[in-house]
Every structure is written in C-alpha cells, then in structure tokens.
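Lecture notes, unit on protein representations.

Consider one protein chain, 368 amino acids long.
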Amino acid sequence: MGLRRIHGRVFALLALAVCGLPGAAAIAEAPGPLASFDAVIVATAHDADAQSSEVRRVHVGPSGQSSTAIGVVGHPPGAVVRGDARDGVAWIVADEDPSLPDWGAALFEVRSGQGARRVLGRVGHASRPLASGSGSVFVERGRAGSPPTLDEVKQGRLRVDAITIDAYDPRTTATRALYSSDAYALHLAGEHGGELVVYRVAPDGAALLAIDEASARSRVVTALMPFARDFSIDERRGALVLSNRDGADAHAWTLERIDLTTGARTVLHATRDDQPAALALPSGELAFTADGRRGLVAAGHSMAPLGAGFDAPVLATGDGALFALEHREPGGWDRTAVVDVATGRAVRLGGDERVTILELGSATGGVR
C-alpha cells in the first residue's frame, strides 16, 4: 500500500485540496458506468453481536454487481476484522480471544472451494496481514509486557511488549520470526524491492525500518514522529507515503513521501484540519482526504463521490484508473466504494454491512 518536498510543491498541493482553486478540477457528473472490475472483500453485518464475517469475490460490470462467497470467518461479537488478498486468496486477521485485547487475534486463510482455515494465533488486534509477492504472508505477533509503574506513567512511558514480524509460508505451513523488538508497536507499512517496510514505536522513539525478507537483515530508513498512519508504497519513486503529525506544529498534520533508500522526506500537503489519509497511485500522483471533510483530491481532481464525510483512499488498480475508498460520516455507517479517477463516479460495494476491500483489479489494469 503507499504514502503520502520542496516548498513550491507544497503550496501547489495545498491549492489542489480546495475545491474551485486553480489546479483542483472539480469532477462533474459524467455519463456511463465505471469500467468493469473484480474485487475481493470481507463483509461484517452492522450488528454488535455479529459472530462471523464473509469473504466474497465481487464482479462489477455493465449488468450490475454480483458476488460469490469464498468462506466465512467466525469470531467473537465486536471483533475487528482486517485482511489482505493476493491472486484471489484472502488472509484475514480477526479477534478470537477477548481476554487478550492486544494479542488475541488469529490469522485465517480463505480459499475458494476450501473455505476458511485458522493458521496462526497470538496476532495483533486490528492489525493487517501483508500477502507478499514472494508467497509468504507477514503478520504482527506478540506477548504483552508488564504494566508500567506509576513513575513510568508519569514520565509518559507505556507498556513495552515483545513483538515479532513473522513470515508464514502457506506452501509448507512453516512460520519464522523475521524481526523482533521490545516495543510499543511494530506496524507493517508495506513492501518494496524484497524488503518489508515496518514502522516501529518504542520508548526511544519512532522509526521507519526496512527488513530484507530473505536474510532478515534490517536497517533504519529514518526517524519519525510517533503518530504515523495510512501508509502506502509509491512504486515509481521507491518511497513510502504516510500521514503524520507535523514535527514543529502540534496542531498540524502532514502527508509526506519518504525515500526508502536515502530516508529523504518530502512534505506533500499540510493541514490544520482533521488528520488526512492518502494513497500513492501507480501514476505517482496521490489520492488524499480534502480539508474540511469535503471529499478528496485524486490525481488533481476534487471529488466527493459519496457526499459529505471523511474519505480515506485505500487501494488502486494497477493502472491507477480506479481506486477504493472508505467513507465515514458522523452518525452513519462506514461505506466502501470503488471510484473512477477520471470521472469521479463511484460504485458502492456490499449491502448494509461493514466492508473492507482486500484486492482490486480491472480488465486492463491488473490487480493491486
């Protein structure tokens, strides 16, 4: 997935974020449907007592939307369900043990014709697995440490856990620890050039790491503020895009691009509004949350395909023609849709349920 330098570029992108300003072309209603596409999603009923989530293949074409169930993952009520998919195989992380609020989730493999199969426990709550092009599936696993003492709490210290990034091989069912750290958090931010990109937050600060998937050698890319999120990979530039708090202004948030070889950082957008989310598109351009919860900006176009609310772009097709977004509005349910970058037209996925899109592909653009 991928994320978010020079002062002239900053001001240009600030202008793009405001509807009606030069360079931020507003999308008008355009005739015709979106291009046909396929997706893999996981859907959970809007019900506090829901005890399962369904993984589906979805096809959207000229005749409408159709879906086929691949498998069902069982879980306790109120579980957080996240996932990734590659080549139609879904990898789902879902809470399974409420007595372990941080490390009580499990990894499930969901294949067409085989349904869902639990493969690993002790996985991080609300974490997202990463299905690698190498065939391995990477997950965040850990064990809770001792609670901080009162003096440590006063000093701003949190509980330090024993955390690993583990690689699971579905061909052999073997698991190996690729990286381990006593930390507050290890977060899988992406994959590039045979390396995992990992965000580490610990008592000594936060940093971006690159970990070689074959040798397990790790290196520090750069130090960061400890509020980073919404990571995606800019493949064209070999960089990570992310959202983070501004280092100089505690009331400001930035979208930044970080070169994964040199650690050089470029601020792409700054705002004193709600923390924005961004997605690096295959073209090298961005889709990101517009200021004031007024939709989003995608490749220089301002749009609000699902109306007022917070839009977080999450995934794009290989050609960048379509991208998926999660739409949140006060007092309403989250909604997931696929949007045409050129026209701003959108198709909502699923019914009256919480939908997370795991894989997205078009006939021409391939899958991402």
